[in-house]
Amino acid sequence: MNFSFQELALIAIALDDEEATTVKSKRRFSVHPTWQKREQEGEYHTLYKELLDDETQFYMYFRMTKECFALLENKLSPHLHKKDTFMKRAITPRERLAVCLRFLATGDSHMTISFSYRLGHSTVNKIVKETCKIIVDQLMSEVPEMTTEMWKAVAEDFWLLWNFPNCLGALDGKHVVIEAPPNSGSLFFNYKSTFSIVLLALVDAKCNFIYINVGAQGKNHDAGIFMTSSLRQRLENGTLNIPQNRALPGTNIVAPYVIIGDSAFPLKTYLLRPYPYNSGNREFEVFNYRLGLARRCVENGFGILTQKFRIYQGRIKMNPASVDNIILTTCVLHNFIRKNSENEVNSFNLESLEDSSLNNLRSQGGSASSQAFREREKFKVFFNSPVGISSMSEY
User: Fold this and answer.
1) Helix, strand, or coil here: 204?
2) Where is the DDE Tnp4 domain (predicted)?
3) Which of 139, 76, 135, 77 lies closest to 104 in space, CA to CA?
């Protein structure tokens, strides 16, 4: 069939008009009608004012008190603020903070929060990532470098609360379960047959995080995570302002200040781990008991973290870099909330906290220096001495 030049031109124009009409019909609106009702039906706009009238309900929803929320909002608001545009009003800093805290408190998917808050799925994803980064940047910038006097105060708390002298903190690591990252092979695959990122933490006597290391892949050897950490490096090169050795209470036994860990960690002059279990040696058992008792603070710290932020109760479905930031955010919020809430310290049942949803690191053997054995021996002798035994009877 032959067409003239004029006929072909008319056919081309008709096809262009049809294509333009089809594209226009597919894009019927720039914002879905559901999201346009955010200020009338969104969870923040309908619920927040009611929560303000009930402190208990507010705490259950945001996992912090009203006063703590207000203080956090005040610190973050300048960094969360967005400008209104000609087309729409910006989401307020308070609503952005509410979305992020609700995600951390429940572990709900971005899609679930998207529907409840009447926000786009991509908007929720962006708000969570941006707000977590701002929380970490702003709150961690306020954390001072540990001084010698601050370390001494931590050690005093361990002696008063846990009857363990010269202790600067309890060390432990946990596997945070994540969804298998694409094209990652076995990098994040751990001994529990799940995919994970490791959180290594040093906790003080009051269950606050002093030091955290996040990002080690689940397949990494657990002792190796500590050996490559900045904490180990600074402990060995003497840049942490650790106090000088001092006599253990009521004795002439001069011992170093130490951190304590379980069998997953190597024995060092600055790091005490248990003696072999089931050895039949009574003095070993006493030392292990006292060390295990003092280590409850780190187990309690992880337990409080996972009870407060239920995102740890399931598999975190985000890329590893985002998970690292989520973990950092929950840890700094943990410290912030405990510092700024009077009743926070006693609001958890400490007897049930050790049943954490996070998996422990594997026990690890290994060699140690003769000096490390001698330092541990000093604490063993102290705990089996009349002074050490009497301190326990007063506990």
Assistant:
1) coil
2) 171-335
3) 135
* Rounded-to-integer distance, Cα 289 and Cα 272, Å: 13
The sign one gets for the Cα dihedral 90, 96, 97, 102 is positive
Segment 2-11, tens digit of pLDDT: 656 565 555 5
Sign of the C-alpha dihedral, residues 246, 373, 259, 291? negative
- Looking from the CA of 326 toward its CB, the CA atoms found within 13 Å total 29
Q: What pTM was computed for the model? A: 0.85
Output the CA angle 76-204-133, nearest 5 degrees: 25
The amino acid at 230: S
170 with 298: CB under 8 angstroms?
Answer: yes
Strands (E), 102-256: 167-177, 196-203, 209-217, 246-247, 254-255
119: which 2 tokens?
């926000």
Closest to 194 in 3D by CA, of 174, 172, 171: 174
Q: Which two tokens stand for residue 343?
A: 């009743």
